[in-house]
User: What shape does this take?
Amino acid sequence: MTETQTPRRSETTRAAILAAARERFAADGYERATIRAIARDAAIDPSMVMRYFGNKEGLFAAACEFDLRLPDLTDVPRQDIGRTLVLHFLDRWEQDDVLVALLRTGVTNPVGAERMQEVLKKQLFVLAARVCPYPTQAPVRTALVASQILGMALSRFVLRFPVAVEMDREQIADWLGPTVQRYLTAERP
Assistant: This one.
């Protein structure tokens, strides 16, 4: 066996574990997902999961590592930033079961809440700092934008409030866009 075969096998095993974990966490939530079930789904021994990730929390953190793929707002007219972000987040929630699972878990589990906070703080903060008129206010503005985005996602994708589910994307963007816009770009509160 050559040296290049071992890393490939390790990467393949790690990827299989992460794929199985994402599906299991999305289907069962953090509390009900087990290392044994994830290992079974990945067709490996549970000890391999522990070898790669240490424990369930480590596996969850790795499985929920994702890029929000925030849009480059350079060419977006300043007055359209809020609407653009709302539509972007709707796309992300609709296309990513892991993101929905992370939100669901974050509501009931401190590990999930911490993970959700990390993802939003790191990625959304950078965007807020670039577009807000007072970069020192970026943490506050990030928190306010997150409250709107998470509230919408919780209502529409987790709690499934009938009206929130029935609204079309344009309606949601029309309602939430101006609020997100104000949080990011208003001169003063």
